[in-house]
Specification:
- The protein is mainly beta.
- Strands 13, 15, 16, 19, 21, 22 and 23 form a seven-stranded antiparallel sheet that branches. Strands 4, 6, 7, 9, 10 and 11 form a six-stranded mixed sheet that branches. Strands 1-8-5-3-2 form a five-stranded antiparallel sheet, with no helix packed on it.
- A hairpin with a 7-residue loop joins strand 6 and strand 7.
- The protein is globular, with a radius of gyration of 19 Å.
- The N and C termini lie far apart (38 Å).
Length: 287
Protein backbone atom coordinates (compact mmCIF):
# COMPACT_ATOMS: atom_id res chain seq x y z
CA UNK A 1 0.00 0.00 0.00
CA UNK A 2 2.85 2.41 0.84
CA UNK A 3 5.01 2.65 -2.30
CA UNK A 4 7.67 5.04 -0.97
CA UNK A 5 8.12 8.12 1.20
CA UNK A 6 7.14 10.28 -1.76
CA UNK A 7 4.34 8.31 -3.35
CA UNK A 8 0.75 9.36 -3.05
CA UNK A 9 -1.76 7.11 -1.41
CA UNK A 10 -5.47 7.71 -1.89
CA UNK A 11 -7.31 8.74 1.25
CA UNK A 12 -10.83 8.52 2.53
CA UNK A 13 -12.47 11.59 4.05
CA UNK A 14 -11.98 11.51 7.82
CA UNK A 15 -15.16 11.57 9.85
CA UNK A 16 -15.88 15.11 10.93
CA UNK A 17 -13.47 16.47 8.34
CA UNK A 18 -16.12 18.74 6.85
CA UNK A 19 -16.25 20.74 10.10
CA UNK A 20 -14.21 23.89 10.76
CA UNK A 21 -11.05 23.73 8.66
CA UNK A 22 -8.83 26.76 9.31
CA UNK A 23 -6.08 27.79 6.91
CA UNK A 24 -7.40 26.04 3.80
CA UNK A 25 -6.79 27.29 0.27
CA UNK A 26 -9.73 26.59 -2.04
CA UNK A 27 -9.59 26.85 -5.83
CA UNK A 28 -12.29 26.53 -8.47
CA UNK A 29 -11.70 23.89 -11.11
CA UNK A 30 -14.58 23.40 -13.54
CA UNK A 31 -17.20 21.10 -12.03
CA UNK A 32 -14.80 20.00 -9.27
CA UNK A 33 -13.27 21.93 -6.39
CA UNK A 34 -9.68 21.23 -5.41
CA UNK A 35 -8.71 21.97 -1.81
CA UNK A 36 -5.26 22.05 -0.18
CA UNK A 37 -5.64 21.05 3.45
CA UNK A 38 -2.09 20.36 4.65
CA UNK A 39 0.35 21.95 5.05
CA UNK A 40 -1.15 25.30 6.02
CA UNK A 41 0.07 28.05 3.66
CA UNK A 42 2.94 30.05 5.14
CA UNK A 43 3.77 27.47 7.79
CA UNK A 44 7.24 26.52 9.02
CA UNK A 45 8.59 23.05 8.17
CA UNK A 46 11.95 21.42 8.89
CA UNK A 47 14.71 20.18 6.58
CA UNK A 48 14.89 16.39 6.66
CA UNK A 49 11.50 15.87 8.33
CA UNK A 50 8.94 14.03 6.15
CA UNK A 51 5.99 16.29 5.39
CA UNK A 52 2.44 15.17 4.76
CA UNK A 53 0.75 16.98 1.86
CA UNK A 54 -2.97 16.36 1.54
CA UNK A 55 -6.08 17.73 -0.03
CA UNK A 56 -9.58 16.96 -1.16
CA UNK A 57 -11.44 16.92 -4.45
CA UNK A 58 -15.17 17.50 -4.15
CA UNK A 59 -17.02 15.89 -7.00
CA UNK A 60 -19.26 17.69 -9.47
CA UNK A 61 -22.58 16.20 -10.56
CA UNK A 62 -21.44 15.21 -14.04
CA UNK A 63 -17.76 14.38 -13.63
CA UNK A 64 -15.00 13.84 -11.12
CA UNK A 65 -11.32 14.47 -10.47
CA UNK A 66 -9.75 11.32 -11.94
CA UNK A 67 -6.06 11.77 -11.14
CA UNK A 68 -3.53 14.52 -10.57
CA UNK A 69 0.09 15.59 -10.51
CA UNK A 70 2.30 17.28 -7.95
CA UNK A 71 5.44 19.38 -8.48
CA UNK A 72 8.12 20.87 -6.23
CA UNK A 73 10.23 22.65 -8.89
CA UNK A 74 7.82 25.20 -10.32
CA UNK A 75 6.21 22.76 -12.71
CA UNK A 76 9.38 21.62 -14.47
CA UNK A 77 8.68 18.04 -13.43
CA UNK A 78 5.52 16.38 -12.14
CA UNK A 79 4.85 13.27 -10.08
CA UNK A 80 1.69 11.20 -10.51
CA UNK A 81 -1.18 11.35 -8.01
CA UNK A 82 -3.61 8.48 -8.15
CA UNK A 83 -7.21 8.91 -6.99
CA UNK A 84 -9.57 5.90 -7.01
CA UNK A 85 -13.16 6.68 -8.04
CA UNK A 86 -14.46 6.03 -4.51
CA UNK A 87 -12.13 8.50 -2.80
CA UNK A 88 -12.34 12.25 -2.32
CA UNK A 89 -9.00 12.95 -0.64
CA UNK A 90 -5.39 12.54 -1.68
CA UNK A 91 -2.16 12.40 0.26
CA UNK A 92 1.54 12.60 -0.56
CA UNK A 93 4.75 12.41 1.51
CA UNK A 94 7.73 14.64 0.73
CA UNK A 95 10.96 15.35 2.64
CA UNK A 96 12.41 18.87 2.16
CA UNK A 97 16.18 18.82 1.62
CA UNK A 98 17.13 22.52 1.54
CA UNK A 99 16.13 25.65 3.42
CA UNK A 100 14.05 28.36 1.77
CA UNK A 101 10.54 28.78 0.46
CA UNK A 102 9.03 25.61 -0.98
CA UNK A 103 6.22 25.98 -3.51
CA UNK A 104 3.98 22.93 -3.84
CA UNK A 105 1.94 22.74 -7.04
CA UNK A 106 -0.94 20.35 -7.67
CA UNK A 107 -3.05 20.06 -10.80
CA UNK A 108 -6.04 17.87 -11.51
CA UNK A 109 -6.92 15.80 -14.56
CA UNK A 110 -10.56 15.30 -15.40
CA UNK A 111 -12.28 14.01 -18.52
CA UNK A 112 -9.18 14.66 -20.70
CA UNK A 113 -8.80 18.17 -19.30
CA UNK A 114 -5.96 19.52 -17.19
CA UNK A 115 -6.76 21.99 -14.44
CA UNK A 116 -4.72 25.05 -13.59
CA UNK A 117 -2.02 24.34 -10.99
CA UNK A 118 -2.89 25.33 -7.42
CA UNK A 119 -0.04 26.38 -5.13
CA UNK A 120 0.84 26.38 -1.45
CA UNK A 121 4.08 27.95 -0.18
CA UNK A 122 5.76 26.86 3.06
CA UNK A 123 8.97 28.06 4.70
CA UNK A 124 11.58 25.32 5.07
CA UNK A 125 13.80 26.22 8.04
CA UNK A 126 12.30 29.73 8.18
CA UNK A 127 9.76 31.41 10.44
CA UNK A 128 6.05 30.83 10.03
CA UNK A 129 3.96 33.57 8.41
CA UNK A 130 0.67 31.77 8.97
CA UNK A 131 -2.19 34.12 9.70
CA UNK A 132 -3.79 33.02 12.99
CA UNK A 133 -7.29 31.66 12.50
CA UNK A 134 -9.98 32.06 15.11
CA UNK A 135 -10.95 28.84 16.90
CA UNK A 136 -14.14 29.60 18.82
CA UNK A 137 -15.26 27.90 22.01
CA UNK A 138 -18.48 26.59 20.46
CA UNK A 139 -17.16 24.62 17.49
CA UNK A 140 -13.43 24.81 18.03
CA UNK A 141 -10.81 23.68 15.51
CA UNK A 142 -9.60 20.15 14.89
CA UNK A 143 -6.72 18.85 12.74
CA UNK A 144 -7.50 17.42 9.33
CA UNK A 145 -6.48 13.77 9.04
CA UNK A 146 -7.09 12.16 5.65
CA UNK A 147 -7.31 8.53 6.79
CA UNK A 148 -5.77 6.24 4.20
CA UNK A 149 -7.83 3.10 3.74
CA UNK A 150 -9.11 2.84 7.32
CA UNK A 151 -9.64 -0.65 8.68
CA UNK A 152 -11.43 -2.10 11.69
CA UNK A 153 -9.27 -3.81 14.31
CA UNK A 154 -11.15 -6.39 16.37
CA UNK A 155 -8.53 -6.88 19.08
CA UNK A 156 -10.60 -8.01 22.12
CA UNK A 157 -8.05 -6.64 24.60
CA UNK A 158 -8.73 -3.18 26.04
CA UNK A 159 -6.28 -0.70 24.57
CA UNK A 160 -5.65 3.02 25.09
CA UNK A 161 -5.45 4.77 21.69
CA UNK A 162 -4.16 8.29 21.31
CA UNK A 163 -2.88 11.17 19.21
CA UNK A 164 0.19 13.29 20.01
CA UNK A 165 0.01 16.97 19.04
CA UNK A 166 1.21 20.52 19.61
CA UNK A 167 -0.57 23.84 19.07
CA UNK A 168 0.97 27.12 17.94
CA UNK A 169 -0.81 29.31 20.51
CA UNK A 170 -2.18 29.06 24.05
CA UNK A 171 -5.78 28.01 24.46
CA UNK A 172 -7.89 25.14 25.69
CA UNK A 173 -8.92 21.68 24.55
CA UNK A 174 -12.71 21.87 24.66
CA UNK A 175 -13.37 18.30 23.59
CA UNK A 176 -12.25 15.15 21.84
CA UNK A 177 -13.76 13.52 18.76
CA UNK A 178 -13.59 9.73 18.61
CA UNK A 179 -14.62 7.79 15.52
CA UNK A 180 -15.58 4.22 16.46
CA UNK A 181 -16.84 1.58 14.01
CA UNK A 182 -20.63 1.72 13.99
CA UNK A 183 -20.69 4.62 16.48
CA UNK A 184 -21.92 2.44 19.39
CA UNK A 185 -24.05 4.36 21.96
CA UNK A 186 -21.79 3.32 24.83
CA UNK A 187 -19.77 5.52 27.20
CA UNK A 188 -16.21 6.42 26.24
CA UNK A 189 -13.39 7.40 28.57
CA UNK A 190 -11.14 10.12 27.13
CA UNK A 191 -8.04 11.67 28.66
CA UNK A 192 -5.69 14.56 27.96
CA UNK A 193 -2.07 14.02 28.97
CA UNK A 194 0.97 16.28 29.20
CA UNK A 195 4.35 15.26 27.80
CA UNK A 196 5.38 13.45 31.00
CA UNK A 197 2.20 11.39 31.33
CA UNK A 198 0.43 13.66 33.78
CA UNK A 199 -3.37 13.60 33.38
CA UNK A 200 -4.84 17.03 32.64
CA UNK A 201 -8.42 15.86 32.03
CA UNK A 202 -10.26 12.56 32.49
CA UNK A 203 -13.89 12.33 31.34
CA UNK A 204 -16.25 9.42 30.69
CA UNK A 205 -19.49 9.94 28.80
CA UNK A 206 -21.72 8.94 25.92
CA UNK A 207 -20.54 10.84 22.81
CA UNK A 208 -22.83 13.48 21.35
CA UNK A 209 -23.41 13.28 17.60
CA UNK A 210 -21.92 9.78 17.87
CA UNK A 211 -18.31 10.88 18.39
CA UNK A 212 -17.82 14.02 20.53
CA UNK A 213 -16.87 14.17 24.21
CA UNK A 214 -16.61 17.59 25.89
CA UNK A 215 -13.82 18.40 28.34
CA UNK A 216 -13.93 20.79 31.34
CA UNK A 217 -13.68 24.48 30.46
CA UNK A 218 -10.41 24.95 32.34
CA UNK A 219 -8.42 22.42 30.26
CA UNK A 220 -5.64 24.78 29.20
CA UNK A 221 -2.74 24.02 26.85
CA UNK A 222 0.42 26.02 26.09
CA UNK A 223 1.97 26.87 22.73
CA UNK A 224 4.68 24.47 21.55
CA UNK A 225 4.21 21.85 24.27
CA UNK A 226 3.53 18.20 23.44
CA UNK A 227 0.19 16.72 24.51
CA UNK A 228 -1.69 13.47 23.90
CA UNK A 229 -5.44 12.87 23.73
CA UNK A 230 -6.56 9.27 24.11
CA UNK A 231 -9.56 7.02 24.60
CA UNK A 232 -10.10 3.53 25.99
CA UNK A 233 -11.56 0.94 23.61
CA UNK A 234 -12.91 -1.27 26.38
CA UNK A 235 -12.28 -4.25 24.14
CA UNK A 236 -14.57 -2.97 21.37
CA UNK A 237 -13.45 -2.84 17.71
CA UNK A 238 -11.57 0.31 16.78
CA UNK A 239 -10.56 2.26 13.68
CA UNK A 240 -6.95 1.92 12.52
CA UNK A 241 -5.17 3.36 9.48
CA UNK A 242 -1.58 2.24 8.98
CA UNK A 243 1.08 4.63 7.58
CA UNK A 244 -1.19 7.65 8.05
CA UNK A 245 1.46 9.53 10.07
CA UNK A 246 4.48 8.77 7.89
CA UNK A 247 4.90 12.54 7.57
CA UNK A 248 4.36 15.50 9.87
CA UNK A 249 0.91 17.08 9.66
CA UNK A 250 1.01 20.90 9.71
CA UNK A 251 -2.55 22.18 10.00
CA UNK A 252 -2.73 25.43 11.96
CA UNK A 253 -3.03 25.68 14.88
CA UNK A 254 -2.02 21.99 15.09
CA UNK A 255 1.24 20.19 14.41
CA UNK A 256 1.15 16.37 14.51
CA UNK A 257 4.55 14.61 14.51
CA UNK A 258 5.61 11.57 12.54
CA UNK A 259 4.15 8.52 14.34
CA UNK A 260 1.56 10.75 16.05
CA UNK A 261 -0.74 7.79 16.65
CA UNK A 262 0.13 6.13 19.98
CA UNK A 263 -1.23 3.33 22.15
CA UNK A 264 -0.76 1.35 25.37
CA UNK A 265 -2.15 -1.92 26.74
CA UNK A 266 -1.76 -1.09 30.44
CA UNK A 267 -4.52 1.54 30.74
CA UNK A 268 -1.78 4.14 31.10
CA UNK A 269 -0.05 6.88 29.15
CA UNK A 270 0.09 5.82 25.47
CA UNK A 271 3.61 6.09 24.04
CA UNK A 272 4.00 3.14 21.66
CA UNK A 273 3.42 3.40 17.90
CA UNK A 274 2.74 0.84 15.17
CA UNK A 275 3.31 1.43 11.45
CA UNK A 276 2.69 5.19 11.86
CA UNK A 277 -1.00 4.41 12.40
CA UNK A 278 -3.90 6.72 13.22
CA UNK A 279 -6.77 5.65 15.45
CA UNK A 280 -9.74 7.88 14.74
CA UNK A 281 -9.23 10.42 17.54
CA UNK A 282 -8.63 14.21 17.33
CA UNK A 283 -8.66 17.09 19.85
CA UNK A 284 -10.93 20.13 19.59
CA UNK A 285 -9.06 23.39 20.31
CA UNK A 286 -10.29 26.88 21.16
CA UNK A 287 -8.00 29.87 21.34
Amino acid sequence: MFRSARVLVAALLAAGGAAVLPGTAVADYGPAVQVFLTPTPGSHVEVGVPLQISGSSHYGEASHWEWGEISFDGGETWDYLDLPPTSENWQYFYTPTVEGDLTILVRAHEDRRVGEPRAVVVHVGGPSTTRPDSCGVILGCRPFIADVYPTVDTDPRPVELGLAFRVDRPGQIIGVEVTRPGNPPTPVRVRLWDSTGGVLADVTGVPTYGYRISLPQNTQVAAGERYVVSYSTGGLPYRSTEWQFSGEVVFAPFRLPVSAGVYSYDDGFPTESWHNSSYGIVPMFAG
